[in-house]
Description:
The chain has helices at residues 22-31, 62-67, 70-86, 109-120, 133-137, 141-150, 165-178, 197-205, 243-248, 274-288, 306-320, 332-335, 342-350, 353-356, and strands at 7-15, 36-41, 45-50, 98-104, 156-160, 184-191, 231-232, 234-242, 255-264, 297-299, 327-329, 358-359, 383-384, 390-397, 401-408. By secondary structure, the chain is an alpha/beta fold.
Amino acid sequence: MPDLPRVAITGAGLTSPNGNSLDEYRAALLAGRSGVQDYEIRYVGKTHAGICDFDALRHQKRKDVRRGTRAGSIAIYCAHEAITDAGVELDRYDPARVGVYTGVTEHGNVETENEIHEVSQYDFDLRYWSHHHNPRTVANNPAGEVTVNMGLRGPAYSLGGACAAGNLGLIQGMQMLQLGAVDFALAGGVSEAIRTFGIFASFRAQGALAEHEVSAKASRPFDQARNGIVIAEGGCLFALERLEDAEKRGARVLGEVVGHCVNSDGTDFVLPDTDGQNACIRGALASAGIEPAGVDVVSTHATSTESGDSAEAAAVRQVFGDHEGVWINNTKSFIGHAMGAAAALELAGNLPSFRDGVVHPTINVEQLDPACKLGGLVVNEPREVGRVETILNMSFGMLGINSAVLVRSHAG
Length: 412
Protein backbone atom coordinates (compact mmCIF):
# COMPACT_ATOMS: atom_id res chain seq x y z
CA MET A 1 0.00 0.00 0.00
CA PRO A 2 1.50 3.37 -0.98
CA ASP A 3 2.26 5.92 1.71
CA LEU A 4 -0.63 8.28 2.32
CA PRO A 5 -0.08 12.01 1.80
CA ARG A 6 0.93 13.94 4.89
CA VAL A 7 -1.63 16.49 6.12
CA ALA A 8 -0.89 19.88 7.63
CA ILE A 9 -2.89 22.34 9.71
CA THR A 10 -2.27 25.72 8.11
CA GLY A 11 -4.92 27.84 9.81
CA ALA A 12 -7.27 27.94 12.79
CA GLY A 13 -10.49 29.93 13.02
CA LEU A 14 -12.26 29.93 16.33
CA THR A 15 -14.61 31.57 18.75
CA SER A 16 -14.35 30.61 22.39
CA PRO A 17 -15.68 32.01 25.67
CA ASN A 18 -12.33 33.76 26.22
CA GLY A 19 -11.18 34.69 22.73
CA ASN A 20 -12.19 35.04 19.09
CA SER A 21 -8.84 34.37 17.45
CA LEU A 22 -6.04 31.93 18.14
CA ASP A 23 -3.77 34.69 19.47
CA GLU A 24 -6.46 36.14 21.75
CA TYR A 25 -7.46 32.70 22.99
CA ARG A 26 -3.88 31.63 23.67
CA ALA A 27 -3.17 34.86 25.56
CA ALA A 28 -6.15 34.14 27.83
CA LEU A 29 -4.97 30.59 28.49
CA LEU A 30 -1.50 31.76 29.45
CA ALA A 31 -2.91 34.56 31.62
CA GLY A 32 -5.27 32.19 33.47
CA ARG A 33 -8.33 34.09 32.26
CA SER A 34 -11.58 32.13 32.41
CA GLY A 35 -14.46 32.68 30.00
CA VAL A 36 -17.12 31.14 32.23
CA GLN A 37 -19.90 33.53 33.30
CA ASP A 38 -23.14 33.64 35.24
CA TYR A 39 -25.97 32.47 33.02
CA GLU A 40 -29.72 32.01 33.23
CA ILE A 41 -31.83 29.88 30.93
CA ARG A 42 -35.59 29.27 30.97
CA TYR A 43 -36.94 26.46 33.14
CA VAL A 44 -33.50 25.80 34.61
CA GLY A 45 -32.76 29.19 36.13
CA LYS A 46 -29.40 30.50 37.25
CA THR A 47 -26.29 28.51 36.39
CA HIS A 48 -22.88 28.99 34.72
CA ALA A 49 -21.86 28.83 31.07
CA GLY A 50 -19.03 29.50 28.67
CA ILE A 51 -20.48 32.21 26.41
CA CYS A 52 -18.96 33.43 23.14
CA ASP A 53 -19.04 37.04 22.00
CA PHE A 54 -18.16 37.20 18.31
CA ASP A 55 -19.42 39.40 15.49
CA ALA A 56 -21.67 37.19 13.37
CA LEU A 57 -22.26 40.11 10.98
CA ARG A 58 -18.59 40.10 10.09
CA HIS A 59 -19.31 37.33 7.59
CA GLN A 60 -23.12 37.20 7.38
CA LYS A 61 -26.02 39.48 6.56
CA ARG A 62 -28.67 40.09 9.20
CA LYS A 63 -31.31 38.16 7.27
CA ASP A 64 -28.99 35.14 7.05
CA VAL A 65 -28.37 35.22 10.80
CA ARG A 66 -32.14 35.32 11.42
CA ARG A 67 -32.79 32.49 8.99
CA GLY A 68 -29.98 30.24 10.17
CA THR A 69 -28.75 28.82 13.46
CA ARG A 70 -26.29 29.81 16.13
CA ALA A 71 -24.19 26.76 15.26
CA GLY A 72 -24.27 27.82 11.62
CA SER A 73 -23.09 31.33 12.48
CA ILE A 74 -20.30 29.90 14.61
CA ALA A 75 -19.23 27.59 11.77
CA ILE A 76 -19.30 30.42 9.21
CA TYR A 77 -17.27 32.69 11.46
CA CYS A 78 -14.69 29.96 12.12
CA ALA A 79 -14.47 28.98 8.45
CA HIS A 80 -13.72 32.52 7.27
CA GLU A 81 -11.24 33.11 10.06
CA ALA A 82 -9.46 29.81 9.35
CA ILE A 83 -9.00 30.73 5.71
CA THR A 84 -7.66 34.14 6.66
CA ASP A 85 -5.34 32.60 9.23
CA ALA A 86 -4.07 30.15 6.62
CA GLY A 87 -3.16 33.07 4.35
CA VAL A 88 -4.94 31.56 1.36
CA GLU A 89 -7.44 32.87 -1.16
CA LEU A 90 -10.33 30.42 -1.43
CA ASP A 91 -10.79 31.13 -5.14
CA ARG A 92 -7.51 29.34 -5.85
CA TYR A 93 -9.48 26.09 -5.38
CA ASP A 94 -12.26 24.52 -7.40
CA PRO A 95 -15.34 24.99 -5.12
CA ALA A 96 -16.17 21.32 -5.70
CA ARG A 97 -12.80 20.34 -4.23
CA VAL A 98 -13.24 22.09 -0.87
CA GLY A 99 -14.70 19.98 1.97
CA VAL A 100 -16.36 21.10 5.20
CA TYR A 101 -16.54 18.69 8.16
CA THR A 102 -18.14 19.88 11.39
CA GLY A 103 -18.17 17.69 14.47
CA VAL A 104 -21.35 18.09 16.55
CA THR A 105 -22.56 16.60 19.81
CA GLU A 106 -26.18 17.24 18.92
CA HIS A 107 -28.00 19.60 16.59
CA GLY A 108 -31.57 20.82 16.37
CA ASN A 109 -32.55 20.82 20.04
CA VAL A 110 -32.25 24.59 20.29
CA GLU A 111 -34.50 25.27 17.32
CA THR A 112 -37.14 22.72 18.31
CA GLU A 113 -37.27 23.98 21.89
CA ASN A 114 -37.64 27.54 20.64
CA GLU A 115 -40.43 26.66 18.24
CA ILE A 116 -42.38 24.72 20.86
CA HIS A 117 -42.01 27.62 23.28
CA GLU A 118 -43.16 30.06 20.60
CA VAL A 119 -46.29 28.16 19.56
CA SER A 120 -47.16 27.55 23.21
CA GLN A 121 -47.73 31.30 23.46
CA TYR A 122 -50.42 30.93 20.78
CA ASP A 123 -52.25 27.89 22.13
CA PHE A 124 -50.13 25.64 19.88
CA ASP A 125 -51.47 27.18 16.69
CA LEU A 126 -48.99 25.73 14.17
CA ARG A 127 -49.41 28.70 11.87
CA TYR A 128 -46.79 30.25 14.13
CA TRP A 129 -44.31 27.41 13.56
CA SER A 130 -41.35 28.63 11.48
CA HIS A 131 -40.97 27.23 7.97
CA HIS A 132 -37.20 27.50 8.58
CA HIS A 133 -37.35 24.77 11.23
CA ASN A 134 -36.43 21.82 8.99
CA PRO A 135 -33.26 23.25 7.41
CA ARG A 136 -32.26 24.55 10.82
CA THR A 137 -32.50 21.14 12.47
CA VAL A 138 -30.93 18.75 9.95
CA ALA A 139 -27.66 17.37 11.29
CA ASN A 140 -25.62 18.72 8.39
CA ASN A 141 -26.80 22.28 9.08
CA PRO A 142 -23.55 23.86 10.36
CA ALA A 143 -21.47 22.52 7.47
CA GLY A 144 -24.24 23.30 5.02
CA GLU A 145 -24.55 26.88 6.18
CA VAL A 146 -20.82 27.31 5.49
CA THR A 147 -21.23 26.04 1.91
CA VAL A 148 -24.19 28.34 1.25
CA ASN A 149 -22.34 31.32 2.71
CA MET A 150 -19.16 30.66 0.73
CA GLY A 151 -20.56 29.13 -2.42
CA LEU A 152 -18.73 25.84 -1.87
CA ARG A 153 -19.76 22.70 -3.77
CA GLY A 154 -17.62 19.97 -2.22
CA PRO A 155 -18.58 17.33 0.36
CA ALA A 156 -19.90 18.99 3.50
CA TYR A 157 -21.50 17.28 6.47
CA SER A 158 -21.53 16.97 10.23
CA LEU A 159 -20.13 14.09 12.24
CA GLY A 160 -22.05 13.14 15.36
CA GLY A 161 -19.53 11.95 17.90
CA ALA A 162 -20.88 13.21 21.23
CA CYS A 163 -18.08 15.13 22.95
CA ALA A 164 -15.39 13.49 20.81
CA ALA A 165 -16.84 15.12 17.69
CA GLY A 166 -14.25 17.88 17.26
CA ASN A 167 -11.53 15.28 16.80
CA LEU A 168 -13.76 13.33 14.41
CA GLY A 169 -14.21 16.38 12.19
CA LEU A 170 -10.45 16.85 12.04
CA ILE A 171 -9.84 13.17 11.27
CA GLN A 172 -12.45 13.20 8.51
CA GLY A 173 -10.89 16.23 6.85
CA MET A 174 -7.46 14.60 7.00
CA GLN A 175 -8.74 11.36 5.50
CA MET A 176 -10.57 13.08 2.65
CA LEU A 177 -7.37 14.90 1.73
CA GLN A 178 -5.41 11.66 1.85
CA LEU A 179 -7.99 9.95 -0.37
CA GLY A 180 -7.72 12.75 -2.91
CA ALA A 181 -11.43 13.57 -2.59
CA VAL A 182 -10.72 17.24 -1.78
CA ASP A 183 -7.81 19.65 -2.08
CA PHE A 184 -8.63 21.83 0.91
CA ALA A 185 -10.65 21.10 4.04
CA LEU A 186 -12.27 23.08 6.82
CA ALA A 187 -12.57 20.65 9.71
CA GLY A 188 -13.21 20.67 13.45
CA GLY A 189 -16.25 21.14 15.65
CA VAL A 190 -19.01 23.55 16.66
CA SER A 191 -21.46 23.86 19.54
CA GLU A 192 -24.53 25.96 20.36
CA ALA A 193 -25.16 23.88 23.50
CA ILE A 194 -25.87 26.73 25.91
CA ARG A 195 -28.97 27.71 23.90
CA THR A 196 -30.87 24.52 24.86
CA PHE A 197 -32.28 24.16 28.35
CA GLY A 198 -32.55 20.39 27.85
CA ILE A 199 -28.81 19.83 28.16
CA PHE A 200 -28.66 21.83 31.40
CA ALA A 201 -31.73 20.08 32.78
CA SER A 202 -30.39 16.64 31.96
CA PHE A 203 -27.00 17.24 33.57
CA ARG A 204 -28.72 18.70 36.63
CA ALA A 205 -31.00 15.66 36.87
CA GLN A 206 -27.88 13.51 36.64
CA GLY A 207 -26.22 15.49 39.44
CA ALA A 208 -23.49 16.53 37.06
CA LEU A 209 -24.10 20.27 36.51
CA ALA A 210 -21.42 22.42 38.16
CA GLU A 211 -22.27 24.79 40.98
CA HIS A 212 -19.97 27.40 42.51
CA GLU A 213 -20.39 30.84 44.04
CA VAL A 214 -17.83 32.19 41.55
CA SER A 215 -18.57 31.32 37.93
CA ALA A 216 -14.93 31.54 36.83
CA LYS A 217 -14.09 28.78 39.33
CA ALA A 218 -16.98 26.45 38.49
CA SER A 219 -15.06 24.37 35.96
CA ARG A 220 -12.38 22.59 37.99
CA PRO A 221 -11.08 19.36 36.46
CA PHE A 222 -9.08 17.11 38.79
CA ASP A 223 -9.88 19.26 41.84
CA GLN A 224 -11.09 17.50 44.97
CA ALA A 225 -14.10 19.84 45.17
CA ARG A 226 -15.23 19.50 41.54
CA ASN A 227 -18.96 18.90 41.25
CA GLY A 228 -19.90 18.88 37.59
CA ILE A 229 -19.80 20.21 34.07
CA VAL A 230 -19.95 23.82 32.91
CA ILE A 231 -21.67 23.88 29.51
CA ALA A 232 -20.15 26.09 26.84
CA GLU A 233 -20.69 27.15 23.26
CA GLY A 234 -18.02 27.78 20.67
CA GLY A 235 -16.29 26.45 17.61
CA CYS A 236 -13.00 25.83 15.90
CA LEU A 237 -12.36 24.87 12.29
CA PHE A 238 -8.88 24.11 11.02
CA ALA A 239 -7.66 24.78 7.52
CA LEU A 240 -6.18 21.49 6.33
CA GLU A 241 -4.01 20.88 3.28
CA ARG A 242 -1.77 18.15 2.02
CA LEU A 243 1.65 19.03 3.38
CA GLU A 244 3.19 18.99 -0.08
CA ASP A 245 0.65 21.56 -1.31
CA ALA A 246 1.15 23.75 1.76
CA GLU A 247 4.92 23.75 1.28
CA LYS A 248 4.57 24.60 -2.40
CA ARG A 249 2.64 27.76 -1.59
CA GLY A 250 4.99 28.65 1.28
CA ALA A 251 2.30 28.29 3.93
CA ARG A 252 2.96 28.57 7.63
CA VAL A 253 2.32 25.13 9.14
CA LEU A 254 0.78 25.10 12.63
CA GLY A 255 1.25 21.35 12.93
CA GLU A 256 1.09 18.05 11.07
CA VAL A 257 -1.59 15.46 11.91
CA VAL A 258 0.39 12.24 12.29
CA GLY A 259 -1.84 9.78 14.15
CA HIS A 260 -5.33 9.12 15.39
CA CYS A 261 -7.66 6.52 16.85
CA VAL A 262 -11.39 6.29 17.47
CA ASN A 263 -12.91 3.39 19.42
CA SER A 264 -15.84 2.50 21.67
CA ASP A 265 -16.02 1.26 25.26
CA GLY A 266 -19.08 -0.90 24.65
CA THR A 267 -19.94 -0.77 28.34
CA ASP A 268 -22.32 2.01 29.43
CA PHE A 269 -24.44 4.96 28.26
CA VAL A 270 -22.55 7.59 30.25
CA LEU A 271 -19.90 6.07 32.52
CA PRO A 272 -16.37 6.22 31.07
CA ASP A 273 -14.16 3.15 30.81
CA THR A 274 -10.45 3.37 31.60
CA ASP A 275 -9.64 0.33 29.45
CA GLY A 276 -11.35 1.81 26.40
CA GLN A 277 -9.55 5.13 26.81
CA ASN A 278 -6.23 3.35 27.32
CA ALA A 279 -6.76 1.40 24.09
CA CYS A 280 -7.64 4.58 22.21
CA ILE A 281 -4.52 6.40 23.35
CA ARG A 282 -2.31 3.43 22.49
CA GLY A 283 -4.04 3.10 19.12
CA ALA A 284 -3.24 6.71 18.25
CA LEU A 285 0.38 6.26 19.32
CA ALA A 286 0.69 3.10 17.24
CA SER A 287 -0.78 4.76 14.16
CA ALA A 288 1.86 7.48 14.42
CA GLY A 289 4.72 5.16 15.33
CA ILE A 290 5.36 7.16 18.51
CA GLU A 291 6.22 5.77 21.94
CA PRO A 292 4.60 7.28 25.06
CA ALA A 293 7.85 9.00 26.00
CA GLY A 294 7.78 10.72 22.60
CA VAL A 295 4.71 12.78 23.53
CA ASP A 296 5.40 16.22 24.97
CA VAL A 297 1.90 17.53 25.76
CA VAL A 298 -1.18 15.51 26.70
CA SER A 299 -4.39 17.54 26.38
CA THR A 300 -6.96 15.85 28.60
CA HIS A 301 -10.71 15.61 28.14
CA ALA A 302 -11.56 15.87 31.87
CA THR A 303 -14.94 17.56 32.36
CA SER A 304 -14.96 18.03 36.16
CA THR A 305 -17.08 15.01 37.02
CA GLU A 306 -15.92 12.72 39.80
CA SER A 307 -16.03 9.48 37.82
CA GLY A 308 -14.90 10.89 34.48
CA ASP A 309 -11.76 12.68 35.67
CA SER A 310 -10.53 9.78 37.78
CA ALA A 311 -11.15 7.20 35.03
CA GLU A 312 -9.21 9.29 32.52
CA ALA A 313 -6.38 9.96 34.98
CA ALA A 314 -6.05 6.21 35.46
CA ALA A 315 -5.79 5.65 31.70
CA VAL A 316 -3.17 8.40 31.35
CA ARG A 317 -1.11 6.92 34.20
CA GLN A 318 -1.31 3.46 32.64
CA VAL A 319 0.02 4.71 29.31
CA PHE A 320 2.50 7.39 30.34
CA GLY A 321 3.51 6.43 33.86
CA ASP A 322 5.95 9.01 35.13
CA HIS A 323 7.77 9.69 31.86
CA GLU A 324 9.75 12.85 32.49
CA GLY A 325 8.94 15.57 30.00
CA VAL A 326 5.35 14.47 29.31
CA TRP A 327 3.30 17.52 30.33
CA ILE A 328 -0.44 17.28 30.96
CA ASN A 329 -3.09 20.02 30.93
CA ASN A 330 -6.79 20.72 30.56
CA THR A 331 -8.55 23.54 28.69
CA LYS A 332 -12.11 23.04 29.97
CA SER A 333 -11.00 24.61 33.23
CA PHE A 334 -10.96 27.93 31.31
CA ILE A 335 -13.96 27.70 29.00
CA GLY A 336 -16.19 24.88 30.23
CA HIS A 337 -17.27 21.97 28.08
CA ALA A 338 -17.95 23.09 24.51
CA MET A 339 -19.33 19.68 23.54
CA GLY A 340 -18.89 19.15 19.78
CA ALA A 341 -16.33 21.96 19.67
CA ALA A 342 -14.37 20.84 22.72
CA ALA A 343 -11.68 18.71 21.08
CA ALA A 344 -10.97 21.24 18.34
CA LEU A 345 -10.77 24.18 20.74
CA GLU A 346 -8.53 22.22 23.11
CA LEU A 347 -6.12 21.29 20.33
CA ALA A 348 -6.06 24.89 19.11
CA GLY A 349 -5.18 26.14 22.57
CA ASN A 350 -2.12 23.89 22.66
CA LEU A 351 -0.83 24.28 19.09
CA PRO A 352 1.11 27.49 19.90
CA SER A 353 3.29 25.42 22.26
CA PHE A 354 5.16 24.33 19.15
CA ARG A 355 6.19 27.93 18.71
CA ASP A 356 6.72 29.23 22.24
CA GLY A 357 7.64 26.09 24.23
CA VAL A 358 5.09 26.91 26.93
CA VAL A 359 2.37 24.58 28.24
CA HIS A 360 -0.79 26.33 29.41
CA PRO A 361 -2.04 25.23 32.83
CA THR A 362 -5.14 23.61 34.25
CA ILE A 363 -6.68 26.31 36.44
CA ASN A 364 -8.95 26.07 39.49
CA VAL A 365 -7.02 23.18 41.03
CA GLU A 366 -7.01 24.20 44.68
CA GLN A 367 -6.68 20.69 46.11
CA LEU A 368 -5.75 17.93 43.70
CA ASP A 369 -7.88 14.80 44.03
CA PRO A 370 -5.45 11.96 44.88
CA ALA A 371 -7.32 9.78 42.34
CA CYS A 372 -6.35 12.31 39.67
CA LYS A 373 -2.68 12.61 40.52
CA LEU A 374 -0.65 12.75 37.32
CA GLY A 375 3.06 13.24 36.85
CA GLY A 376 3.63 16.27 34.68
CA LEU A 377 0.23 17.88 35.37
CA VAL A 378 0.64 21.64 34.84
CA VAL A 379 -1.44 23.41 37.47
CA ASN A 380 -2.53 27.04 37.80
CA GLU A 381 0.54 28.63 36.16
CA PRO A 382 2.01 28.13 32.65
CA ARG A 383 5.12 25.99 32.40
CA GLU A 384 8.05 26.87 30.19
CA VAL A 385 9.28 23.49 28.98
CA GLY A 386 11.50 24.37 26.04
CA ARG A 387 10.99 22.40 22.86
CA VAL A 388 7.52 20.90 22.19
CA GLU A 389 7.33 18.51 19.24
CA THR A 390 4.26 16.30 19.78
CA ILE A 391 0.76 16.93 21.19
CA LEU A 392 -1.79 14.24 22.05
CA ASN A 393 -5.35 15.59 22.01
CA MET A 394 -7.89 13.36 23.77
CA SER A 395 -11.67 13.67 23.71
CA PHE A 396 -14.31 11.20 24.91
CA GLY A 397 -18.10 11.13 24.88
CA MET A 398 -21.37 9.48 25.83
CA LEU A 399 -22.19 5.99 24.61
CA GLY A 400 -18.51 5.23 25.13
CA ILE A 401 -16.92 6.93 22.11
CA ASN A 402 -13.22 7.72 22.53
CA SER A 403 -10.94 9.73 20.25
CA ALA A 404 -7.29 10.70 20.24
CA VAL A 405 -5.32 12.73 17.70
CA LEU A 406 -1.55 13.23 17.54
CA VAL A 407 -0.12 16.40 16.02
CA ARG A 408 3.59 16.99 15.45
CA SER A 409 5.51 20.20 14.99
CA HIS A 410 6.48 20.63 11.37
CA ALA A 411 9.89 21.72 12.59
CA GLY A 412 10.19 18.52 14.66
